[in-house]
Q: What sequence folds into this?
C-alpha cells in the first residue's frame, strides 16, 4: 500500500486506511478511487496527489 500527498494542501491519502468518511474502504488504491473523488480538505482531484516515497 502506498501513501499520497495532495499537491495543494498536503492532505495524506493512505491506501491502507482509505477514506472512510467519504465511503472509501481501507485498501483502496488511489487509481481505483472514483474519478470524481476529491481531496476532503481542499477539493483537489486525485490527479493532484503525488506519491510519498518511503
A:
Amino acid at each position: 500500500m502506498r501513501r499520497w500527498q495532495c499537491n495543494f494542501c498536503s492532505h495524506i491519502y493512505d491506501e491502507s486506511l482509505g477514506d472512510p468518511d467519504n465511503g472509501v474502504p481501507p485498501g483502496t488504491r488511489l487509481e481505483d478511487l472514483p474519478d470524481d473523488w476529491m481531496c476532503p480538505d481542499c477539493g483537489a482531484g486525485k490527479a493532484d496527489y503525488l506519491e510519498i516515497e518511503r
